[in-house]
Write a structure and sequence with these properties.
The protein has 341 residues and is mainly beta. It has no helices and 32 strands.
Amino acid sequence: MKRSCIVVFVAVVVGVFGGCSQKKYFEPKDVNLQAEFSHTLPASIIHTSRAGALLKNYEVLDTSGKTNIEIAKGQRFLGKEGAYYLVQNGCDALLLIDSATKTQSELAFNKCVVSATIAPQTHLSQSNMFLALVSADNSVIVYDVAHKRERFSQKLANITAINTLAAAPVFVDNKIIFPTLDGKIVIFDRASNTLMRDILIQSDKFFNNIIYLVVKNDLIIAATPKRISTIVGNSKTFNYDGDFRDLLLYKNKIYVLSNDGTILELDNTLKLLRKAHFEYARLHGIVIQNNTLYTLESHKYLIELSLENFLPVIYKVALPSKKSIFYTHDSLFYDKFYKRF
């Protein structure tokens, strides 16, 4: 049987200023400080996702900043929970790999997975493990590992292209919140095995998948590249529109990287509190440590932004151009170099 494929594109934003096609660059004046990316990985990064980064030697760099497993050529890393890593063979079988023993369990499957989450449990074992999956045809799937079968699957609206920063499903009590590829979040009830609610975030046709999804107490934050939404107390919804590259929740504030070189600070109702603009800057990665935000401008500068006064310090960096970036809660990784904060 011939399988239809969906091409996954990387969202690239090209700025056009004043009708001129000549590209503009961030050029800060009087930058005398230098930042060193003095640590090195075993190999360069060749692919990244929300779940982790794949190195050229096929080691996996996970969100803890560690490389504990190596996968085969053609396999894709989908996520980690406890000692278990989830990997897919192309668009076929899923593999659960125990990082301690390196033993693998193969699960029958036949769809390309875009994002996935292993259900978190106190004593995680394959006998009571469930997977929440979003596939490239915009299906949401609950997979029962013990019985090696899909417990639930539903295909949603057709989509055309996918931003590589695809958010992963979130397990909350007896529910699963799925980020879809057509700009929605859908809530699955595990007790009744049904989708109980869907919430439209944005209805654009292209690159409209949910790129960020966080659930904290009674707050849900979901974002596409064009809209951020917060749902407070399961009832009140707030929206903020723009052109976004990435965002991060930190101490009940939402910090946003915009494609026009602006860093935004929003509250839970998406009220704009503060912003810092860097003309023509292309911001990549967002790390917050010790009340300070760090982001890379292309491969030339590291921007350090104090969250006390929102004043920046800019450092020169010496990094190769046009390489992959990945970040964890405390580190920025670029190509094979990284810096911890």
